[in-house]
Specification:
homodimer, 286 residues, Rossmann fold, 2 domains, 7 strands, elongated
Chain lengths: 286, 286
């Protein structure tokens, strides 16, 4: 990109888009623009000096953007890209932030212009609060950011990696879409389902609250779920998620049967194995 | 207690005992002493000005203590109280910090001297690190502290409440032992079992780590478990815990079947119900 600065348009200035905008705008390399259906958000971000435009001229912004980062819900992201296919700058990169990759990549594959590169993205960060007002530059610190190539996009991945590296202290992971969707069924979708299942009980809420420690609070945290977004994610990743749920059910049945049998040594071995697994996942020494 | 200060002996200067000692010792009302099998810990706490004794003279300390707080593993706590029954100061209060209350209360009931009051205690705070070195005064801030009366102890509970209130910004809850053990099966033992079940998978640890966001990290956190302590807790609360696991299994089966059916509205209703439950438990407005 032979310009003094890189023009980036962020589409959808919510929690993720807002946080990307806030982090990248601190870097003089970038000129950040944004597209959002909410005019107030655009005006606010402009006043915050997070973006350079205070009105949305969609075609104009896309035509000059070296990179377009789509931070919309999956179906809206696909719609946006389809609708604007003729508007993207030649030789530019488009990326997204959707939590599943197979669907969006297969949708884009058939419609993408040959002079444009699409690389899938999934920043694995979030919080229970949504919207631009809850976004912040450090949202991504310490988190994983997955990039998924499409056919022929490999050669330009390094350019996107350089930009994405500037959103914070993150771990960038390159993955195939099928592997990504299978892994997040286990590492993200399953914990959300477990939190939902745990939040349901015959006890009243005050009693639960009175007897809760950190373990319960952490375990239900993501049960405070964005139902609109997650209904799509869950149904679009149904087969992988069912597999993960059934793997979990089997593990839980196994531990339950050990508890029922009451064999102290067997239970202690099981707990020691968990301790080892958790430490390995956390990358800690034993 | 008609003295200028209240003598308190803490038995077991680990994470919980150490944190209680560190918080109460900041208050001039109390003179804090400690008993621990590890001489180095006693010397360290003395040098830290957390306790007033630098050697352990068990009988002497218990004879002058208005309150004795036993912060040992359940069986050790019962053994300690039995062994020292003749040594406790007349009219003093004994309390413990064990995670289950029925067993210790029924064990104590038959051996307690009539001039001593036993009140069960359960501070619902902790972390994955153990020992005095990891203890800190603010461990209990924001947490629940359950107190369980024995027959006849009710009249002196207010005295213990006044002292316990000084360990931090805590929510003191008075409960019956059977209710306590049933509730913690759900709010504490179950989340630990779920974390253990979740930490087991066919994926390698680096891959899991690369695809983990906050939801997974929070959900496995307590799987890094103290197997010695938890083997006892789990087996001693076996019936309640099995009930809680089976309630959870039923909830999970229910959500799985909704996902399998793929009915969007039904799934969204389920997620919305979870969102509502979690907000109610957290005491948030909808």
């Amino acid at each position: 990109m032979e310009v003094d600065f890189i023009n980036i348009t962020i589409v959808g200035l919510g929690l993720i888009g807002g946080s990307i905008a806030k982090s990248l705008s601190k870097n003089k390399k970038y000129k950040i623009y944004a597209i959002d259906t909410n005019k107030n958000t655009i005006e606010k971000a402009y006043k915050d000096m997070v973006i350079h435009n205070n009105v949305v001229e969609e075609t104009n912004l896309l035509e000059k953007s070296d990179v377009t980062i789509i931070c919309l819900y999956p179906n809206d992201a696909i719609e946006f890209i389809k609708k604007n296919m003729k508007n993207f700058k030649s030789n530019s990169i488009i990326t997204d932030t959707c939590g599943l990759k197979t669907k969006i990549l297969s949708s884009i594959k058939n419609i993408i212009r040959r002079d444009i590169t699409f690389i899938g993205g999934h920043p694995m960060a979030g919080r229970e609060l949504n919207g631009y007002d809850n976004s912040y530059a450090k949202l991504f610190d310490g988190s994983n950011y997955i990039l998924v190539n499409t056919e022929g996009s490999e050669s330009r991945t390094h350019e996107l990696i350089e930009i994405i590296s500037d959103i914070g202290n993150i771990n960038i992971v390159i993955s195939k879409s099928s592997n990504h969707d299978n892994m997040v069924a286990y590492t993200s979708h399953l914990p959300h389902i477990l939190a939902c299942a745990l939040s349901k009980s015959p006890y009243n809420y005050k009693a639960i609250s009175n007897f809760s420690g950190g373990s319960f609070k952490d375990s239900i945290r993501v049960g405070d779920i964005n139902s609109m977004l997650w209904t799509d994610l869950i149904l679009d990743n149904k087969e992988n998620l069912i597999d993960s749920i059934e793997m979990f059910e089997e593990n839980l049945r196994g531990i339950k049967s050990i508890i029922k049998n009451g064999n102290r040594n067997e239970l202690m071995d099981t707990l020691n194995e968990s301790k080892k697994n958790v430490k390995l996942i956390k990358g800690e020494r034993m």
